[in-house]
Write a structure and sequence with these properties.
Length: about 80
């Protein structure tokens, strides 16, 4: 598989490869994807996140027919 990288991204990949003593650019890409994936995917899968979302879903929802009605509800 061939991947085209800009010159700047290629330099960054080489720096990451050196910083973490990785064997090649493929290992560096895998490392970056793994680290980035933690921030993007894992928060949605953590049990505390699921628990928090279920709590939000269980909250009572107040429906308003107009903005003025909503304002009155917040003033109380």
């Amino acid at each position: 598989m061939n991947i085209e990288l800009s010159e700047e991204n290629n330099r960054l990949l080489n720096i990451i490869k050196a910083m973490f003593d990785l064997k090649n650019k493929s290992d560096a890409l895998n490392f970056i994807i793994k680290e980035y994936g933690k921030d993007v995917v894992e928060p949605q899968l953590r049990p505390e996140y699921v628990k928090k979302m279920r709590g939000i879903q269980a909250e009572k929802v107040t429906k308003y027919n107009s903005v003025s009605e909503m304002r009155k509800g917040f003033e109380q």
